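== Item description ==
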Amino acid sequence: MGTIVERPRRDGSVAYMAQIMIMRDRKIVHRESRTFDRRPAAAAWISKREAELAKPDAVLGVRPSSRNPTLAMAIDRYIAESRRQIGRTKAQVLATIKTHDIADKACAEITSQDLVAFAATLGQNVQASTVGNYMSHLAAVFAIARPAWGYPLDERAIADAFKVTRRLGLTGKSRSRERRPTIAEIDRLLQHFATSAIRRPGTNPMVPIIVFALFSTRRLEEITRIAW
């Protein structure tokens, strides 16, 4: 039976993940999910898929192939097998990608058009530089999926998508900053992080970091390497 799970996105919107699970003899024989922007669309997909899966031997024909899994499964394997430490930002980006429809597609089905459409969807809520970061992190999965695991993710598809998104302005560089923060803005930042430090004592000491950054003009990476 299908279920719908609400998932909040970083931009404040809500994604609706439709899930279908089939059990036989107390074992899961089939499971699939797909994410939608609207609950009615998620409910309609569940009804359609349940009707399709109710046909004789239908489940046998839709189970993911070990050689052609979904993009979400490829992302999970990338995270699980990476010996290099995956930063928090990259982990969050890959987790967010898994909430989009493209993550439910089989690797062999993903085209450059799918990737461009995905970038366009992201671009409705975030800046072009952020879309570029998402695509770059996703490209890392594409780069190793075929040579490492035999998954049919086409590196040319994401390379072509990068060309298109740059030409269309969907990806690009960060906007340059043309002013310094005001004293009032700095006070608000310090107050915010001072309050956060009281609630969460184990977080980074942002108040001294901000003050040190202002007076030392060092880069963040330099500052955070310095012993206390």
